[in-house]
Amino acid sequence: MDTIILTGGRGKRLGALTICQPKANLHFAGKSLLAHTLSALNGSEDLIERICIATGYRAEKIESQYRHDAVGISSKIPITFLPVEPQPKGTFGSAMWALRAARMTGPCLILGIDAIVAQRAMAEFIAGIRSETHTTFMVSTMLAVAPTHGRIHLNGKGEIVEYRKSSLCAQTPPDGWYCDVGVRYFPADFVKECQSLSFTSACDFDDIVPSMVDKGRVFKSHVLNERWLHFANSRDFLQKPL
């Protein structure tokens, strides 16, 4: 499978931190968020054929940061920077643009830049989806970690039966609700379908997934049962490292 890392967002919630630097370049525990994301993929070289980094806001600084970080990243997976997205259209819209720009035809892992997941947890997820035929989301019961991420309700088979914007959920949702971590797997047929979609305005995952679920599309889940980190504001950079 291939991997796309979405780094093009403006990161407005981070305020002054992203005026001069893109979110991917911000440092936590001695490494940039981009380096943390790439490091989490180490150990999965036999399952990931290439990594494509999708950029937008201050793209040239992200490439410069990668060249600086590359010395400390031991990944054996080929890494490519995609052309700069001319007009970012939300996380889902940017993912669709990246799929087309990378000419994806097979299964693909889609990662955001605002979450840090331990390498072993990422490797477990990747190994578990290697033969999966359904789109699969990594989810967590730790809802407070990412207050801005979508909320997911699962049935007894681990399938997503409801997906809501966090702003539409109660402060403390009842049992059975999970948080979208931001690690998603698209099988080849969904990759092909997504490349035919187009949007006239910004579209995030919590804009498009609910309607797909309502229409009967099966989305599966992989529950992350350990601590992970999310970065949405300046206070998040004071968290204890994993």
Architecture overview:
The chain has helices at residues 33-40, 59-69, 90-101, 119-128, 188-194, 205-214, and strands at residues 2-6, 27-28, 31-32, 50-54, 79-81, 108-111, 115-116, 135-140, 151-154, 160-164, 177-186, 219-224, 229-230. With 242 residues, it is of the alpha/beta class. It has a domain at 2-133 and 182-204 and 225-238: Spore Coat Polysaccharide Biosynthesis Protein SpsA, Chain A. β9 (151-154) and β10 form a beta hairpin. The protein is globular, with a radius of gyration of 17 Å. The model has no long low-confidence stretch (mean pLDDT 90).
Write the layout of secondary structure elements.
Layout: E1 2-6, E2 27-28, E3 31-32, H1 33-40, E4 50-54, H2 59-69, E5 79-81, H3 90-101, E6 108-111, E7 115-116, H4 119-128, E8 135-140, E9 151-154, E10 160-164, E11 177-186, H5 188-194, H6 205-214, E12 219-224, E13 229-230
Parallel strand pairs: 1-4, 1-6, 4-5, 8-12
Antiparallel strand pairs: 2-3, 6-11, 7-13, 8-11, 9-10, 9-11
